[in-house]
Design brief:
The complex is a heterotrimer of chains A (342), B (506) and C (338). Chain A has 342 residues and is α+β, with helices and mostly antiparallel strands. Chain A has helices at residues 42-50, 96-100, 111-121, 138-150, 168-185, 196-202, 220-225, 230-236; strands at residues 4-13, 16-26, 31-35, 57-62, 65-68, 81-84, 156-160, 188-193, 205-210, 213-218, 240-247, 250-253, 256-259, 266-273, 278-281, 289-297, 300-307, 312-318, 328-333, 338-339. Chain B contains 23 helices and no strands. The radius of gyration of chain B is 24 Å and the shape is globular. The chains are: A alpha+beta (342), B mainly alpha (506), C alpha/beta (338). At the B-C interface, helix 3, helix 12, helix 15, helix 18 and helix 20 of B face helix 1, strand 2, helix 3, helix 8 and helix 12 of C.
Amino acid sequence: MSFLSLSHVSKRYGAVEALHDVSLTLPKGGRLAILGPSGSGKTTLLRIIAGFEAPGTGTVLLDGEVLVDANQHVPSHRRQIGIVMQDGALFPHLSVADNVGFGLAHGLAGRASKIKELLVMVGLDPALGSRSPDALSGGQQQRVALARAMARAPRLMLLDEPFSALDATLRDTTRKAVSTLLQVAGITTILVTHDRSEALSFADQVAVMGHGHLLQQGTPQGLYRHPANKLVASALGDAIVLPARIAEGMAHCALGKVAVNDKTARLDAEILLRPEQVKLTDPLTGPIGTVIECDFAGPFCAVTVRLDGGYALHMRQSSFNAPAQGARVGFSILGCAHIFTV
Amino acid sequence: MNGLTRMMAAVALLISIAALVPLGFVGWVGLQAGWQMVATLVLRPRVAELLLNTALLTVATVPICAVLSIALAWLTERSDLPGARFWAWLAVAPLAVPAFVHSYAWVTVAPGLHGLGAAVLVSVLAYFPFVYLPVAATLRRLDPALEDNAAALGLAPWQVFRRVVLPQLRLALCGGALLVGLHLLAEYGLFVMIRFDTFTTAIIDQFQSGYSGPAANMLAMVLVVCCLVLLATDAAARGTTRYARLGSGAARTQPLTPLGSALLPCLLVPVITAGLTLGVPLATLGRWLAIGGAGIWKLDEIGGALGQTLMLAIAGGALTVAAAIPMAFVSVRAPGLIQRVLEASNYIAGSLPGVVVALALVFITVRVALPLYQTPVTVIAAYVLLFLPRALLSLRASIAQAPVDLEHAAASLGRNPLGALWAVTIRLAAPGAAAGMALVALGITNELTATQLLAPTGTQTLATAFWAYSNEIDYAAAAPYAVLMILFALPLTWQLHTQSQRAAGR
Amino acid sequence: MKFFALPLASALLAGVLLTFAPEHAAAQASAPLVVYNAQHVSLTKAWVEGFTRETGIAVTLRNGSDTELGNQIVQEGAASPADVFLTENSPAIALVERAGLFVALPADTLAQVPAAFRHASGLWVGIAARSTVFAYNKTKLTPAQLPKSLLDLAEPGWKGRWAASPSGADFQAIVSALLETKGVPATAIWLAAMKTNAIAIRGNGAAMKAVNAGEVDGAVIYHYYWFGDQAKTGENSNNTGLHYFRGQDPGAFVSISGAGVLASSRRSVQAQALVKWIAGPGGQAILRTGDSFEYAVGVGAASHPSLVPLADLQAPLVEPSRLNSAKVAEMMIAAGLL
């Protein structure tokens, strides 16, 4: 039984189709990351779930309750769905404590101590409560925004690129903290992001969006290994895509014979290899290429190899055994290649 | 501080001291008069009557302006009102009609109109754009994420408006309300025509009865106190809360609320407002022009008034901007406590009603600086004092757009310091200076009290000519002057409108 | 310094404009005569145009109200830029006269005006006159209900029913006549009653307009506002009639507009010529033919034919030079009317 379910949700803005027939489900306590470049429709989808916008068609159900269908639209303030936005969207005219307590009734017993608890829960000193939001750092602001959303014990938490405005180190620590917190609280969560590593590390389900379409939904590992198409493949990581002929349980391609997961014979298949599957070896057997570029980047080198057959491959290689420019190299493949189903 | 900044600071100091002359005059008059005379001339029922009038007028006008402005701003900025841009422009356009022309139109339409109710009506119609402009601009700039968040936190739409939107409009409302309040204190023509007594009308009465005498000066003292009370109230109402947008990302554009079945009643708000603020004056002027026919177009007289108005407006505008440059430069390049004090003194002087500044200058020139008495120098000095804040605001913004880094960049490209200043700062600040000059020129064109009291013998501006004719109830002969003032102001009003649109990125 | 190019250019421009401003050269002997004019601008313009046409002497006007300009001349003292002072009413000219700032007018100028309409020792001369009237709304008041005396308007029955323009020099002149004829205590009582009874409206024309619109039953104004409006559209007076108090009542006061030459004038020859011209046949003819509807005061000069003849007004006998505007202002301030 899915906790959140969207069926056939579409949305147009004038001539632009922002969402096209999107259906997805999420179990209770699940953590879904919606990944996609800007303009892919991911934020629109989130805003429809939050109730800030109504879909053109389609239904949204939460815990068996209809939030939106052809006949009704529950306004956002009655949905009990929390949201944390890109830069927190804290109310600048209220103190930190008033921000956190914004959704709590004024007469609520133990309101002040609840606010303190929430601040502690998100890892902030309760003494910050009297400060003005602009006196806090970006990371602290995001924690306040989270505490504010948590105050109302939301049925569903929506995170709209909440870490993207933070700098790299802060981004990782804040993400981990938020992730742990939500997990402990057991709150069903949807994270919208354009950062693939964020999506993969945060969620137990990833949905990839492009041009208003939901391209594929699945576990992070499943999507990474077995994407439905090239768009999904490159959305989740660097990809080497080669045309291949499948015969005798192997793929025959520019890199020679490569093991595959689907042994059905085909003449015009396309296979996917992740660059980390490809190891450079001495040019002994099989296809050979020439290193045309090798850029040192600390722990690894970005290596470009031109195959004698004409293809250029981009991959990373440990900087300790990286080949020199102009070197002749051979290849060995780790694991299976993935065949796109056309 | 480098040498240039130091020099600018010195000039700014001199100008600020000059700006405090009217305030000093009022204080001196109070001290000079002694308790006995203050008691006779200030502590009397008439002054209490005027105080009550002023208080009632302000208390009634400002909230109505606020409510009307918020309603109009919401409709033009946040709803799917058809022709919203057009209505937004019409909400600013009443500023092109001088306040006394508004009341001239209303006493023509409804000859019996007078007293507090009438004063409030015409004041609201003439001055609400001062509140509408900042409120609409703020509403447009508000981050919609805040409202989304409030809704997600369980607030119904009207609660969102009350707890999130309204607090964010506070600064805009305060600024607009202060401007309206100061205009209510300073305005003369509007209230004379609508027959409502305020301190300014009473001061002019006293002046016309006894010239620069203690009776007028004492009332001016009370008026200045009213003015300072207003400034203090505003400062208190502003508070110290921050309202700027937090975070770095650009705010999403505002979604427009569909009006649906409420469209027609909502459309009535801007339609009726435009009808009252623009329809009534334009129809009235049209009627008087038609009645007057060709006879009222005494071209030599009108041409003379137009020429003198332009001369005063251009000279006053240029000098005011020139006087504002040092202050603006210092406040951008060397901000600090002293700079804030200097700037505040300029703003206080600029908040004083024209009649107070004029009384001070009459008093001083006739007694101390007789060669300057009744010369253009004095009336232009009054304009500079009155309109310095307008020029300062425009200039400061544009000088801030030319950070010192740009000058350094120009210097690294081989320009000497002055060359760099000229090539970068001056070029970037020029549009701001021009806008400030235009605003000052507009103020001068519609100025009545200081011009009447200080202008050299034989001076007739569009405003004073209009006033002279309408005072003799020759409304037809006054009409061409009103039309010229409106035509003069329209482009500037348009500029204000587009500027506020641009500031919000539309 | 290039940075100052912009402000400097502006300042220079301003300076140039100032130099060419119309009256900068006011102090030079060849410059136009400076007239401080409290009379209606249109009337004085007609006078000055006629004078300039005949003599070629140019005139610049500084317009204002009686007591404003009178007090201004007193404060300016010997440094006053004014050459000639023209008033609407007697108190203002008396103010300057008492300050000793006028120079005597020559006999031929004085001879043009009857003694009743000029200063006893010839420091100023009358140039026009106006009569106090009670303009009333004809649908609200019958002739029988009209006040018999100005003093009647102090009675409680008139509360809220009559208007006047207490801030104007015209009405203050009427009060000065009341003060002169009835004395301080009676005037103080009458002014206190007026504060209760009267609606204050700025300007005689506006007061008449209010009567015409039926806002008040009547107003104490001068006669010529009514005739002037009738000659134009009548829009502000068609519902009104004029009531003359007559019988030497303070309300029958006829106020004299005066002209005097300042002792400090550096163009006194031209200044004397102007005063002589206005008081003479040329100036007085303009009162008969023009649209001012003020009374002509010259010897043998006829007023506009539509007016009630000056001689029929039975005005109280008041010595104009004794009219005291300062005392009137003080008493009106005390009564809360100013």
